[in-house]
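Notebook, student rotation project (T.W.).
Task set for the rotation: take a protein with a known small-molecule partner, predict the structure of the complex, and write up what can be learned from the model alone. Partner molecule chosen: adenosine-5'-triphosphate. Sequence and SMILES entered below by T.W., checked by me.
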Amino acid sequence: MSVIELDGLRKSYGDVTALRGVDLTVERGEVFGFLGPNGAGKSTTINIMLDFASPTAGGVRVLGEDPQSDSVPVRRRTGSLLEGYGVYGGLTAREHLRHAIETRGADDDPDELIARVDLEGAAGRRAGGFSKGMKQRLALAVALVDEPDLLVLDEPSTGLDPNGARMLRRIVRAERDRGATVFFSSHILEQVEAVADEVGILYDGEIVAEDSVEGLRRELGAGSTLVVELTGPPDRLSGLEDLAGVRDVTFRDGRLEASCDDADAKLRVLNELSAAGLLGEFDVREASLGEVFSKYTTDDDVVTDA
Ligand SMILES: Nc1ncnc2c1ncn2[C@@H]1O[C@H](COP(=O)(O)OP(=O)(O)OP(=O)(O)O)[C@@H](O)[C@H]1O
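Predicted structure of the complex:
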């Protein structure tokens, strides 16, 4: 079942076109990473999904409902962490949670939620004095209230230190494991790569790619790079680039690097090296999502799926 369906979504603010026809589907139980550079339209999309903004054109369904005509069931079943979450300075972390739990008519234990975001030491402190990262942790705890079916997290790693980033990944996985769907936006590629099942890349108001991390790598032919320490000079080698699925072969400092489309291509290279008596230690370097992302979002090389 689809939890989020966007169909030709368009949004203009006066002369500025933020979304130019976004089509997107997120299935139940999926962790969807919504990637894009600053100003791509990520927050605009999220605001429309939660009915904090209305589309200029196009359709949107969240959890089977149209949030524009009836946002109540959508918001009741969705936990959200949005940009610029404002805390009540006079309330403690625990009081924030109590308030959110009461508003939702839920029965969560506030201290348990506080522990999940590693804020135990600050449970009784007023949030007005919290650091940016602490506020972000509190906002995340609030989003988790009442075991939402859908978690929408807009740039959730903002302000988090490395421990916080790990905590966030742990929570995203745990939420997925209990059956929730997680939709999170980010321009921090490592975050997305670590936990997302599916990735959508938004660029200048359009989805330019939507696939699994693996699929995106394959689609771009980014494949992976085989790195081999050679046991001798490569003079006796030739024609490696003629092997099927092998590209960009380079030799430097006694080391060979070759882009390989798949495991068979790697084996072909290794066999050749072995036959030539040059095979030393080898390693495989996967293309990072960062490389994929920059290929899709560099101005002079934008790939569209239109
Ligand atoms: N309320 C608004 N009024 C006018 N323009 C807006 C408004 N909200 C967004 N925009 C414009 O729409 C475009 C998309 O903005 P949006 O905030 O959705 O991008 P984003 O991908 O979330 O960016 P970031 O990563 O910087 O948060 C930008 O050009 C932005 O200036």
